[in-house]
Amino acid sequence: MQWYRAAVFTDSHAISGFSTNDIAAAQEFYGRTLGLEVTAENGMLMLHLAGGGQVIVYPKPSHRPATFTVLNFPVPDVEKAVDELAGAGVNMERYEGLGQDEKGIMRGMGPTIAWFEDPAGNILSVMEVPEP
């Protein structure tokens, strides 16, 4: 079997995206609560991430939150990040059977990680990745 390689994507910087049922609440959460640079255009948001990455957040009246993590934020210290998020009013999610501690941090089953939701119920995480 011969494979065709679409060269058009070789140098393309892909942009991920997910939906929300409330653009204004998403803009407030991602911009003010999480401190990301957020721009709005054509009724959608663009999240500008460190390193040049971008994520589109688009309105969808029939939005259903994903049942998986849509965006992971690598941090050098998950516990510190969880404390900062808690100080900003963000609650950590707790999932049965994952052995999370009282702060909602899971350790020892892969990377140290904690999950939280945006206002539309999309699942996000802070994941410990040591600095180089």
What does this structure look like?
There is one protein chain. It is built from two helices and nine strands. It has 132 residues and is an alpha+beta fold. Strands 5, 6, 7, 8 and 9 form a five-stranded mixed β-sheet that branches. A four-stranded mixed β-sheet has the order 1-4-3-2, covered by helices on one side. The longest helix is centred in the N-terminal third of the chain and has 11 residues, at 23-33. The radius of gyration is 17 Å and the shape is globular.
The number of helices is 2
From the spread of the alpha carbons, the general shape counts as: globular
Mean pLDDT: 93
Low-confidence stretches: none
- The structure class reads alpha+beta
Q: What distance lies between the first and last C-alpha atoms, to the nearest angstrom? A: 41 Å
Order of helices and strands: EHEEEEHEEEE
Q: Measured on Cα atoms, how large is the radius of gyration?
A: 17 Å
- Percent in helix: 10-25%
| Topology, number of strands | 9
Query: How would you name the oligomeric state of the polypeptide chains in this document?
Result: single chain
Strand content: 25-35%
Largest sheet: 5 strands, mixed
